[in-house]
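Researcher: Hi, I'm a grad student and pretty new to this. My advisor asked me to get structures for two proteins we've been looking at. I'm not sure of the right format, so I'll just paste the first sequence and hope you can take it from there.
Model: That works fine. Here's the first sequence with its structure tokens right after it:
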Amino acid sequence: MIPIAKPMIGSEEMYAVAEVLRSGGLAQGSRVRSLEERFADYIGVSHVVAVSSGTAALHIAMLAHGIGKGDEVITTPFSFIATANVILFTGAKPVFADINNNYNINPEEILQAITPRTKAVLPVHLYGCPAEMKAIQEIADDHHLIIIEDACQAHGATYYNKKVGSFGTGTFSFYPTKNMTTGEGGMITTNDQKVAERARMLRNHGSSRRYVHEMLGFNLRMTDIGAAIGLVQLKKLDHFNVARRKNAEYLTGKLKDIEEISTPDSDHGHVFHQYTIRINDRDDFVSYLESNGIGTGIYYPIPIHKQPLYQKLRFGDSLPVSERFANVVVSLPVHPGVSEDNLNYIIRMIKEYTEVKL
């Protein structure tokens, strides 16, 4: 089986973890601080706060900006459910705006969704493809809105040579299948010192000094074990992303002329956390590939506003692009562990399918 995702862990990561274990200092410590400093340099921001997951990063970023009851946050319905759930966690209301052909939130739909209660916009750089940040930033400036970027799938992605996570307050996930990993973990990136200070307290029981608690907070810290893995992974990230782009461009070059398939655009700083195509008879297509040893993924089969929880909360708006794409998207293996032989086999199987089945 060619897996849809594969953590790229080597001897360097194992040695780094062993060093931490030998040190006896396993919780948040010097490795976390080093990873924060290096990730800040990498993204190009002044402050970085490491936390326990991407969801924690999103949640804390919301709270650090003072988002709460009575506020509205505009976001996409085409994402992992955590993107919207963190808005609910604060007591605020998610407002969904439909997407465009690159699966990201449509700036024109953001404009239509703004009300007097709108406090922030939460774009997602889905699959590693940057959202249209120039237009989103202009909208935010004109309407005095906070930007919180969900860059959980977009480590190293750029929009006009500027890294995502530096346009507003950024959030990243280091889940094992992401472009880089810490096992579990997340990161908040910002140029706002006050937001960073609040985020640091929120992740640590509302405390800036030991046993002095200034606000209601959480235990959402990263460990030095995870940070040790992350420090090695960050050194490899650009190399990983080059491999992902190369694999994606190879697939697109061979598949773009197949009429039944819509391939993704590799421009605009895409780092291909997922290589996602659209095909109408998806279930048969997925079954065919998997029966021939090719792993696939469907991200995401149900838009957030159609999830049972959100239906109970009466999110009933029609968002036709998201709903249509949810029925036809499928992701193919593109991670750095995919070889050229693997790619050629994937291409051959897809061509056999389209020639015989369609």
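Researcher: Oh nice, that was easy. Here's the second one.
Model: And its structure:
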Amino acid sequence: MGLFHFLGVRLGRDTIPIGVLFSRSGPYAMLGREGYLGAMTAIAEINAAGRYDFVLKAEIRDPHGTIEAYAPACRELVDAGARFLVGCTTSWSRKEVIPVLEKTGAQLWYPCPYEGFEGNDHVVYVGACPNQHIVPLLDYVLPRFGDTPMLVGSNYIWGWETNRIAREVVERRGGVVAAERFVPLGDTDIAHIIEEVLQSGRALSSTR
């Protein structure tokens, strides 16, 4: 045993399954692939370091962007022995797996920015929340580009909540939200929204 320790080799290391739950296809596949690659890189680096008495084994599930598939996939990961999971790109997917986490005692590491207004003992919220990105953004934009913005977001929890915060910030500063528009996840047909923004800008300019 002493020789193996001298050579930097550890024997009998436990294997710990880690759930990796990202959609690498579907409406937000690009973000899902980035999250997946980040998790897999971290697992590989930890295993390669050789400093721990365990190795991590990735248990991977891909819900393919289908919201109803997240809770069953989470349950499969827990049944495979994963007590810790990394994943869920959207707020909807995160909320879908929380009941499974609560029932099984598992823990989700949620790596993406989130909309706030949620706290759960079974979720580690790693990403920024709105006071760390939306508020500084508006602090920069409003004095430079005017206080009558149009708010555009995805038509789900993230868009609703972040637009609500943006609206509160604008109104607190004495501004007015010109309009709010929400786009279905995955929809790329936003030419009509761009035209509406341009028309709103022209109308505002003509009144000044």
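Researcher: Is there anything I should tell my advisor about the second?
Model: You could mention this: The mean pLDDT is 88.
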